[in-house]
Design goal:
766 residues; alpha/beta; binds beta-D-glucopyranose; five-stranded parallel beta sheet; six-stranded mixed beta sheet; globular
């Protein structure tokens, strides 16, 4: 090669390098790339990163549905922007003035939007978020796993981590990068429609499941093209809303906040490094959560060291102005939220212009904008979006509902279904013993098993409960009686017809409960579907009663995300199963359990009250809670936290501790032998509760501090050890403002539920 040619090539390469900005060099450290890019951005471009909009497809759907009518309050989940057309939104995207979208539900739409973003001056890719709460279920064809309440019932965090890892792949395969999960609200009021998307009532269980979910989604270091950002939500305490209605105000003492609601967040930040947080709809102690500097800045960033970004919830920035009436104008609401520590507004126009004005007027500093913008950009670099913002459509097809994911969905469902009652061992069924089986009830043959945060899924992807039973029933004739899906419409005629068929049957399986499908008018639970009571709606109870009166052995299956006060059923029918919302293969999982192909192993992650008047019904209440008993009914739950039966039996030995006295720098371990004394393989969840015998402040009667799920073959015995440290013995002293473990006497209470106690070991902290 001639020398001049070599010189020219070298010059060209060097020039080329020099022209390539640092932020576009994949080999550069993320921090450097962020700084370089920020140095090139205008104020407007930086604020634009903080703006999120719903996807154009979602807007068009809404426009079609409402055909120009005004969307009523309460229907506001149907996002659209009255003063911004889809075309204008696309223009903003092309100019680099949109940072993020949500509810983009196809890979094609994601690619189209990214193409527009690539035309912008700095070619900053979009960050796309979606509510993949139990699989990427807002996307048609995705694997739908059981909802979080069922996941929690598995008491199997490793499995939760696995399905979250798979869900991350399905999220990325459809061009999204961020999921608004986990919901780590500690659910303390079953009237609230969102219980199904929580991990239940216990702070420790919620924490373990939350951490597992985040680790599954974000991987080891939240880096690369196979992980998705997680979002711990909702800050905070909206899960015990006054009157049970979503977004209602909460007044909570700092002590309860620290001991009940905050522990899952502390672990989400400190242990799982969650990259995003979402503020809650509600006000807390008189301050709308979106303007709560103490929570977002002092506690999350200051105390816990949160180092990601905080997104608002749907319309909640605006609601400071137009619902809480706590900001004179929308612009003031924008100011209050950013000043309090919020980084991104979901969703809508006006924010960009008004926030730029706020900086120019000196009310907000550019440093506040930089804080938000730099973290959003960091996420985009970490996720590899600058290298390739697009998704390959072939990958979408290969990933959604692939064999491996479906297998995990089945396993998760099998581990999430709780056997509440099984009188005279009606279960498991030997189907060959039955000739005519009646299957009926509003949830027997539809998609209600998929839960909330799902959009329509292809029928072929869903094994309904009826399908599952038919798959396994062999020569038994399965007669389905269509009782109708809408529980508010069901008449006594239907009940009588079902009972007439029951008379001619030798087994009845009645599937009742709730409808969590957000796209159906007949829904009875899920987001914004709160209830006054916890009884079965409509004629469902009569349906079960009439069938039972025929004398046919009856199994009742409950579907839905919230616990229901099914007192009559619990007292009268032989077998009762809580299936929650078991997902795409829920029908198969349930049938496998009914047939004994799978031995049930799930436990209740939430107490089932006898009556909504018992709310708040929690196992970890204070000692004085039932000092006075109800005069018109029991003061105990219908089924307690941690309850769940198996087809085998387990014998517990006498528990022991490795020491009698522990010190604050020490740990203490409890060991108990558990033996499978039945004839089938089974899994048992050994639960360790701690009870503080004397303390300077009243402590809960007991609190879960450890659990282990063990598999045992018939006759097999295992020693199970659970270890705690002083954290498990500590409480928050709100006068001194610190956690303290007070020396004194404690008990380790080991049980197969919070009520069925197998052994107690006293110990001391010195
Ligand atoms: C819910 C959030 C959800 C968001 C986006 C809100 O109404 O409260 O949990 O992430 O919508 O869909």
């Amino acid at each position: 090669m001639k020398v001049w040619m070599m010189m020219a090539m070298l010059t060209f390469t060097l020039l080329g390098k020099a022209q390539q900005p640092i932020y576009k060099e994949p080999g550069q450290p993320v921090e450097r790339r962020v700084t370089d890019l920020m140095g090139r951005m205008t104020l407007e471009e930086k604020v634009a990163q903080m703006c999120q909009y719903v996807g154009p497809g979602h807007i068009r759907e809404t426009q079609k549905r409402f055909k120009g009518q005004k969307i009523a309050k309460g229907d506001d989940a149907n996002g659209f922007y009255p003063n911004l057309s889809v075309n204008q939104l696309l223009e903003l995207t092309e100019k680099g003035l949109v940072g993020s979208f949500l509810h983009v539900v196809t890979a094609k739409e994601s690619n189209d939007l990214q193409k527009l973003a690539m035309k912008s001056r700095l070619q900053i890719p979009l960050l796309i978020g979606i509510d993949a709460i139990h699989g990427n279920a807002l996307v048609s064809g995705a694997t739908v796993y059981p909802t979080p309440i069922g996941q929690a019932a598995s008491f199997h965090p490793e499995l939760v981590e696995r399905i979250s890892r798979e869900a991350a792949l399905e999220v990325r395969a459809t061009g999204a990068h961020w999921t608004f999960t986990p919901n780590i609200d500690v659910a303390r009021d079953a009237r609230w429609g969102r219980v199904g998307e929580t991990f239940g009532e216990d702070p420790y269980l919620v924490t373990r499941m939350g951490v597992a979910t985040i680790k599954g989604f974000q991987g080891k270091d939240c880096q690369g093209t196979e992980v998705a950002l997680a979002c711990a939500k909702h800050l905070i305490a909206g899960s015990e809303p006054s009157n049970g209605t979503n977004a209602a105000p909460m007044d909570v003492s700092e002590r309860t906040l620290r001991e009940v609601y905050l522990p899952p967040y502390k672990a989400a930040v400190e242990e799982a490094n969650v990259f995003t947080l979402m503020a809650a709809h509600n006000e807390l102690n008189g301050i709308p959560c979106h303007a709560d500097r103490w929570m977002m800045t002092d506690i999350m960033r200051g105390e816990y060291g949160f180092n990601g970004f905080i997104v608002s919830d749907w319309m909640d920035v605006d609601r400071i102005h137009d619902l809480h009436h706590a900001a004179p104008t929308l612009k003031d609401a924008f100011y209050e939220t950013i000043d309090a520590g919020l980084d991104m507004r979901m969703h809508g126009p006006d924010f960009l212009e008004k926030v730029v004005e706020l900086v120019k007027e000196g009310r907000l500093s550019e440093a506040q904008i930089d804080r938000a913008c730099s973290k959003i950009l960091e996420a985009k670099f970490r996720l590899g979006l600058f290298e390739n913002p697009f998704v390959c459509l072939e990958k979408t097809a290969q990933t959604l509902s692939n064999e491996e994911h479906l297998q995990s969905a089945l396993e998760m469902a099998e581990e999430s279904i709780v056997l509440l009652k099984n009188e005279n061992d009606l279960l498991p069924l030997d189907f060959s013993d039955y000739k005519n089986i009646l299957v009926t009830g509003p949830n027997a043959n539809n998609h209600t098993i998929l839960g909330d945060w799902t959009l329509q899924q292809p029928d072929a992807n869903v094994v309904t409960i009826l399908d599952g039973i038919r798959e396994i029933a062999g020569s038994a004739k399965v007669n389905y009686y269509n009782y109708g899906d809408d529980v508010r419409q069901n008449s006594m005629d239907k009940v009588n017809e079902a009972a007439a068929i029951a008379k001619k049957s030798d087994l009845a399986i009645v599937v009742v409960g709730e409808n969590p499908l957000r796209y159906q008018k007949s829904k009875t639970c899920g987001e914004n579907i709160d209830r006054m009571g916890l009884d079965l709606l409509g004629t469902q109870n009569q349906l079960v009663q009439k069938i039972h009166e025929t004398g046919v052995p009856t199994i009742v299956v409950l579907v839905g995300g919230r616990p229901l006060s099914v007192n009559w059923i619990a007292q009268n029918v032989q077998a009762l199963v809580q299936a929650w919302e078991p997902g795409s293969l829920g029908g198969r999982a349930l049938a496998n359990i009914l047939a004994g192909k799978v031995n049930p192993s799930a436990k209740l992650p939430i107490s089932i009250p006898r009556h909504s008047g018992q709310i708040q019904m929690i196992y970890n209440h204070k000692p004085s809670q039932y000092f006075q008993k109800y005069k018109d009914g029991e003061s105990t739950p219908l089924y307690p936290f941690g309850h769940g039966l198996s087809y085998t039996t387990f014998a517990y030995g006498k528990p022991s501790a490795d020491k009698k006295v522990m010190t604050a720098d020490d740990t203490i371990s409890f060991t108990i032998n558990v033996k499978n004394t039945g004839t089938r393989e089974g899994q048992e969840v050994i639960q360790l509760y701690v009870s503080d015998k004397k303390s300077s402040l009243p402590r809960p009667v007991k609190e879960l501090k450890g659990f282990k799920k063990v598999k045992l073959a018939p006759g097999e015995e295992k020693a199970v050890t659970l270890t705690i440290d002083k954290k498990a013995l500590s409480f928050f002293d709100d006068v001194k403002h610190e956690w303290m473990a007070e020396p004194g006497k404690f008990e380790a209470v080991i049980g197969t539920s919070s009520r069925d106690i197998k052994g107690i070991v006293p110990f001391e902290l010195r």
